[in-house]
Amino acid sequence: MTSEVVAAAPVPVPGRAQRVRELALARQDLRGPLIPILHAVQEELGYVAPADVAVLADVLNLSVAEVHGVVTFYKDFRRTPAGRTTVTICQAEACRSVGAVALAAHAQATTGCGFGETTADNRLTLEQTYCFGNCALGPAVQVGDKLHGRVTPTRLDALLGDAR
């Protein structure tokens, strides 16, 4: 499915580099510190900006390529800001067997964006996961921090309406 995603180039935020450096310095002595640092940056600042990669590489004495490789390898790390609300649809086998594929297609058609994309108005980001552990109540959908089970296209429309 093709869709247009409006993803403005991240504008450097004054003080962001300093905060990223502080987060990294506070965790640099952990065993294997890069991933915990990336999680901390994303949790506090919302995403790992391209400029953050160079700061982290400097603090950890790694190459920019090494840090970039980790950020881009793991789907947990966002490289652009997410929309106001993130909608995540389970695509694991249990949910797929009870309608998650059709639900995902409906969500993509309704929002106009694919998985990993954000609507043009920055209100919704559509994501997929491969298990919420809510298999008995599939298809499972998480809207923001709230998990919903047995979600139908009609129910998804209502959830998306609330999120907008």
Automatic annotation (TrEMBL):
Residues reported in the UniProt entry to bind [2Fe-2S] cluster: C90, C95, C131, C135
Cofactor note: Binds 1 [2Fe-2S] cluster.
Listed name of the protein: Formate dehydrogenase subunit gamma
Database matches in Pfam families: 2Fe-2S_thioredx
Matching Gene3D superfamilies: Glutaredoxin (3.40.30.10), NADH-quinone oxidoreductase subunit E (1.10.10.1590)
SUPFAM superfamilies: Thioredoxin-like (SSF52833)
InterPro entries reported for this sequence: NADP_DH_HndA-like, NuoE-like, NuoE_N, Thioredoxin-like_sf
The family this protein is said to belong to: Belongs to the complex I 24 kDa subunit family.
Organism per entry: Kribbella solani
PANTHER family recorded: BIFURCATING [FEFE] HYDROGENASE GAMMA SUBUNIT (PTHR43342:SF1), NADH-QUINONE OXIDOREDUCTASE, E SUBUNIT (PTHR43342)
GO molecular function: 2 iron, 2 sulfur cluster binding; metal ion binding; oxidoreductase activity
UniProtKB keywords: 2Fe-2S, Iron, Iron-sulfur, Metal-binding
Cofactor: [2Fe-2S] cluster
